[in-house]
Amino acid sequence: MSIPDRLTDATPVPPVAPRRPTVLRAHGDERVDDWYWLRERDDPEVIAYLETENAYTRAMMADTVSMQEALYAEIVARIQETDLSVPVRKGPWRYYSRTVEGRQYAIHCRRPAEPAEPAEPAPTSPGDTTTDADEQVLLDENDLAAGHEYFSLGGLAVSPDHRLMAYAIDTTGGERHRMLVRDLASAEDLSDQVEDVYYGLAWANDGATVFYTRPDDAMRPHQLWRHTVGTGPDADVCVHQEDDERFYVGVSKTKDDAFVVLELESKVTSEARVLSGDHPDGELRVVEPRRQGVEYAVEHHDGRFLIVTNADAENFRLVEAPVERPGREAWRDVVAHRPDVRLEDVDVFAEHLVLYERSEATRRIRVMGVRDGGSHTVAQQESVSSAWGGANPEFGSQVLRYEYSSLVTPRSVYDYDMERRTARLLKRQPVLGGYDPARYRTERAWATADDGTRVPMSLVYREDRVRDGGAPALLYGYGAYEHSLDPFFSSLRLSMLDRGFVYAIAHVRGGGELGRRWYEDGKLLHKTNTFTDFVACARHLVAERWTSADRLVARGGSAGGMLMGAVANLAPELFRAVVAEVPFVDCLTTILDDSLPLTVLEWEEWGNPRDDVDAYAYLKSYSPYDNVTSGPHPDMLVTAGLTDPRVSYWEPAKWVAKLRATDADARVLLKTEMGAGHQGPSGRYDAWRDEALVLAFVLRSVGISA
User: Which residues face 333 on adjacent strands?
Assistant: First the structure.
């Protein structure tokens, strides 16, 4: 059973978007875009069309309403709705967040840390939800979200003296925030309000100065601003404006609070400037001037800068430099380049450095002694797993807070004694309803691409699943921006696994799972490797009898949605259904238009088709919207967000219209969030209901109705 056959009298007629041809010209080439007019967000006809599509999707999914309710009930039943994060000590306080059953958003809290207490908190038993009588609520997102269809907390930073808190909120999904400042003693917001703030907040050491960034009209964060508490926004000072449209601005602080760091980054180049945390009105100082293709990030440790960089090191190395002379000529290796290990980041402690690395598609942690330089890797229980750093604000601690998960092991929080090399489990994400990880299996598989490249996949399935080629499977992919799809646990997947699915993650080129070269081989003029790698993974699942083509579903979002569009054109016969969430499918038109959000920033990822005829031709050759075929397509569920600043709603809307016009038998649904952006619904219950709809679509597409 799949999307209902439209030949019955009861089946609704799909919406038809009128063709209004627009001719797009570049490099002597002409493209006719019949649905370019859908870009007019303020046109009532556009809104009416999107609403009609939503109504059609509801009608076509009406036969799954009871299944959606059952799936939603399953999802909620596995989640401990009232829960508490493991507290993190920072100075005289322990900070944590908690959730309450029935409430959509998190509550941020703290409680005093008694001087006699150890530097790290006592273990929290799995599922422990107790709170203390001396709890202080810093911010309740539910209160801020009241009356808004959408809410997102874009940043939260407590001042070094723990008296004030700066935070940023978004109530449209457009990712332009309002910054406010709260007095934590009175729990009241001060008069300070700054509009149009992007992500990133950093306090100076005076506890009265906060730095923030602002976006330009194209949603590129291009300015760093300084705000003094108690003054109006007219008194704020623009500390830096970045006029090179390839670069975006970020702000952070070194762990020891010695420096505020201005981060200037393009997709392939970076520059850092530092400012004394004690002198917020001082001058920014360049660490190393930008050089095309050279990336670096800065931390401070005991009078020296520690710098992770790809200078003369494709997979990055760690160098040190004196604060007085931080430039490249003074860099000295601390951890040399290793061709088989990608160094991603470093955390600093008084006596240890913690290296976050990636090798053979596995994310791991290495601890290095400051005095002797000796190092060891923190053990991971499963080969297909991931470990990453948690909150570690205390520079003087010898205990590392880290987190661990696999496709069968829920997210787990550990304290690791770096001297004794012992780990202590503090909390494991509760999974209610009798979840037993021993009933599930995870493993690594390798597909072979057309050019002979081995492509890793991470698999999870029930131990009693029969591998005879007849069972269903879902293959997930992304493959862009060097973003790695690490094998994390999700209780939401259990509804598929318990119905016989194998869930597979395709670690295709364009991601970062196998180092910088893996990324380079899936971008610019090598982008199609991402698509053919995914197809190779699908073929491997079929050939190895994990599934069959008529029971295989593909899923991806954003750049992964582009992947979905490309493989639906490239190998539609391999997939029974496709879920494409906020898909970047009209990529050529978007990347040609430098007035759109983020376009100029993206040229170093996808190429600049405006100025480079080869980039134009290559993008045109794979752009999903430009390459829709007339042949049969898989069933498709496509999503969009009306206020999405990253992938404009009209990309999926135009794609769906063209699919229907090109393939009369195309069975495709479009669901547009009319009050949300790129991330979809913001509340956790709303997000779970959204996931239940997607799961119902997936299950129905392979013939599962309950």
Answer: 319
Question: 3-state DSSP call for residue 121?
Answer: coil
Structure tokens at 362: 């596995």
> What are the start-end ranges of the H helices in 61-105?
65-78
For residue 152, tell me if it sits in a domain. Answer: no
Q: How confident is the model at residue 598 (pLDDT cuts 50, 70, 90)?
A: confident
DSSP SS3 for 701: helix
* Residue 618 falls inside a structural domain: yes
Mind giving me the DSSP string for 625-642? GGG--SS---EEEEEEET
The answer to whether residue 345 scores a pLDDT higher than 90 is yes
Selected catalytic residue, list 626, 678, 682, 701 = 678
Q: Distance between CA 177 and CA 196 in Å, rounded?
A: 5
Kindly report, residue by residue over 413-460, the tens digit of the pLDDT. Answer: 999 999 999 999 999 999 999 999 999 999 999 999 999 999 999 999
Long-range Cβ contact pairs of 29-33 (< 8 A, separation 24 or more): 29/616, 29/620, 31/588, 31/620, 31/626, 33/589, 33/654
3-state secondary structure 329-379: HHCEEEECCCCCCEEEEEEECCCEEEEEEEECCEEEEEEEECCCCCEEECC
Q: Is 644 a catalytic residue?
A: yes
| Alpha-carbon distances, residue 697 vs 407, 673, 690 (angstroms) | 23, 17, 11
The yes-or-no answer on residue 678 being catalytic is yes
CATH number, domain containing residue 616 = 3.40.50.1820
Q: Which domain range does residue 449 map to?
A: 22-77+434-701
- Whether 452 maps to a domain, the answer reads yes
Token look-up 């910088």 returns: 516
Beta strands in 533-667 (DSSP E): 552-557, 577-581, 635-641
Predicted confidence at residue 124, as pLDDT, reads: 43
Q: How far is CA 451 from CA 304, 406, 480, 512, in A?
A: 45, 30, 19, 19
Nearest to 501 by CA among 464, 447, 453: 464
Alpha helices in 127-172 (DSSP H): 141-145
DSSP 3-state of 617: helix
d(CA 360, CA 342): 10
Model confidence band, residue 10 (pLDDT cutoffs 50, 70, 90):
low
DSSP labels, 449-467: -TTS-EEEEEEEEETT---
Residue 211 in domain: no
pLDDT band of residue 696 (cuts 50, 70, 90) is very high
Residue 117 is predicted with a pLDDT of: 47
Look at residue 194 in the predicted model and tell me its pLDDT: 97
Beta bridge partners of 252: 261
d(CA 598, CA 222): 11
The residue type of 131 is T
- Looking from the CA of 530 toward its CB, the CA atoms found within 13 Å total 33
Task: Using only the alpha carbons of the chain, give its radius of gyration.
Answer: 26
d(CA 50, CA 642): 9
Compute the CA torsion angle 35, 40, 42, 44 (nearest 10 deg). -20
pLDDT tens for residues 21-76? 999 999 999 999 999 999 999 999 999 999 999 999 999 999 999 999 999 999 99
Burial class (CB in 10 A: 0-12, 13-18, 19+), 182: buried
614 flagged as catalytic: no
Q: Tokens 């649904």 — which residue? A: 669
**Global pTM value:** 0.95
SS3 content of the chain, % helix, strand, coil (to 5): 25, 35, 45
Res 122 pLDDT > 60: no
The total domain count for the chain is: 1
Q: Which residue out of 177, 644, 690, 701 is catalytically annotated?
A: 644
Of the residues 558, 648, 682, 701, which is catalytic?
558
